[in-house]
Design a protein that fits this description.
alpha+beta; seven-stranded mixed β-sheet; six-stranded mixed β-sheet; 16 helices; 23 strands; 34% helix; globular
Length: 503
């Protein structure tokens, strides 16, 4: 296949706390990057919103900044991919592009009463066989239903075909490709699988699910593969560039870590943490509290599936200690503070700020700190907060091993917290398995770039992508088994204390 003219591939990485644009070369190395945070809006306890217009504005700003820093133009890019925070729900006017409300963010819990209503009618798993998902505040369908029931005129506009729904990928793709002037209303299979409206095996919107959630088909985007030539970007500064890849952020990290074989897994340590294991070309139902989800679909190839353990709060706990409790001034300072004590002082921190996700799925759980004595200091709190991430990941790994029958040999890691070496060592100790940090830790953006580049022939095979992956550092377990067992036993007691705080 002839090589395209563009020397590089670009990736829009629109995350929970910030938007970034990264330009990659053929070896998967960063050529240029820029990022900008957006506001976290908390109208009420448990409610989390974003301003879609601010996200779009910031996205365009970081695209321009990244290109300018490397003296690049749109013509230097063979294609652009999008990766995005998943489940976050946006409803906007088709004619104007004006959001009908703020975006409801994935961790927002305002749909808890709707969850209760639907569970009463058929149980928590009434849609799991078809969607791979339990009823929870996490997914998009109930967020959209909440907007219909609580925002004046929203349902009427949707029924008249005047409103469009999408997760953040759809919002960005529609605006980048023309907006009200013929913008593409699309979402890829990975994002569609997180709405609780898509049939997993058919990769299509399901009429019975739409009826159950009372959502009109006209409001939904077209479901497309994760890697395909969708169309041309029509807005500056990317005008004329091909839009050719879309992946939800955790699936993008799976692709960026080149986990293309069944049994290969990665964990992303971000605002929350998300462990995905590739299970191949057939969905694997979970019996242990995990999600069955789409991993990726490249072009016309069969889709690949994954088991996922979603943890709501990990990096966000560090932000909370910094911003709400003022325990330290910058997030990296937590490691030095935590290292100043030899252990957690028997303090355990369960960060169930939005309930507990996998494998517990307890919407009524709330955050607790247990084991406090007058001996405890802010350093013990800092250490307990870091350890909470590792304990939660172990919870998910054990569930994944139960479902898949595969013992996790090595955990590939990425995300903002992997620079914390105390956490990485404790994670290896808790799993009793090696933890590997790759040379390239921006794997979410890299996965979106890979999807886009494959679609236009910039990379020709999955082997080209595997050749780019390499190890930066490996942590091996050193903790004695009796210590590991004692700590984890205390963690499980602390988790039980957090259950059903909200009645």
């Amino acid at each position: 296949m002839a090589r395209p003219m563009g020397r590089y591939v670009g990736a829009i990485d629109q995350g929970t706390t910030s938007s970034r644009f990264i330009v990659f070369d053929r070896q998967g190395r960063i050529v240029s990057a820029a990022h900008k945070e957006h506001r976290q809006i908390y109208p009420q306890p448990g409610w989390v919103e974003h301003d879609p217009v601010e996200i779009l504005r910031n996205t365009n700003e970081v695209i321009g900044a990244a290109l300018a820093r490397a003296n690049l133009t749109a013509a230097d890019l063979a294609a652009v991919g999008i990766t995005n925070q998943r489940e976050t729900t946006i409803l906007w006017e088709k004619a104007t592009g004006r959001p009908i409300s703020n975006a409801l963010v994935w961790m927002d819990t305002r749909t808890d009463r709707l969850v209760h209503r639907y569970r009463q009618e058929g149980g928590q798993d009434r849609f799991r066989a078809r969607t791979g998902l339990p009823l929870a505040t996490y997914f998009s369908a109930l967020k959209l239903l909440w907007l219909f029931e609580n925002v004046a005129g929203a349902r009427e506009q949707a029924m008249l075909g005047e409103a469009l729904f999408g997760t953040v990928d759809s919002w960005l793709a529609w605006n980048l490709t023309g907006g009200p002037e013929g913008g593409l209303h699309i979402t890829d299979v990975t994002n569609a699988s997180r709405t609780q409206l898509m049939d997993l095996t058919r990769c299509a919107w399901d009429a019975e699910l739409l009826a159950a959630f009372r959502i009109p088909r006209s409001v939904l985007p077209e479901i497309v593969p994760s890697s395909a030539l969708y169309g041309e970007i029509r807005t500056a500064p990317l005008a004329g560039t091909k839009l050719a890849g879309i992946l939800g952020d955790q699936q993008a990290a799976l692709v960026g870590q080149t986990c293309f074989a069944p049994g290969e897994a990665k964990n992303t340590y971000g605002t929350g943490s998300f462990l995905l294991m590739n299970t191949g070309a057939r969905p694997v139902p979970s019996q242990a509290g995990l999600l069955t989800t789409l991993a990726y679909q490249f072009g016309e190839e069969r889709p690949h599936y994954a088991l996922e353990g979603a943890i709501a709060i990990t990096g966000a706990l560090v932000q909370w200690l910094r911003d709400n409790l003022k325990l330290f001034a910058t997030a990296p300072e937590i490691e030095k503070l935590a290292r100043s004590v030899p252990d957690n002082g028997d303090v355990y921190f369960v960060p169930a700020f939005s309930g507990l996700y996998a494998p517990y799925w307890n919407d009524g759980a709330r955050g607790v700190i247990t084991g406090l004595t007058r001996f405890a200091t802010r350093a013990h709190l800092a250490r307990a907060a870091l350890e909470a991430t590792a304990y939660q990941v172990r919870d998910v790994v054990e569930a994944m091993e139960t479902d898949s029958g595969i013992r996790l040999a090595t955990l590939r890691t990425d995300g903002g917290m992997v620079g914390n070496e105390l956490l990485m060592q404790f994670q290896a100790d808790m799993l009793n398995a090696p933890v590997v940090r790759p040379r390239m830790t921006e794997t979410t953006a890299l996965g979106a770039a890979y999807a886009a580049g494959l679609a236009v022939g910039y990379w020709e095979t999955l082997g080209d992508l595997r050749a780019n992956w390499g190890i930066d550092r490996t942590w091996l377990p050193v903790m004695a088994e009796e210590v590991r067992a004692r700590l984890y036993r205390s963690w499980k007691k602390a988790v039980a204390r957090s259950f059903d705080w909200v009645e």
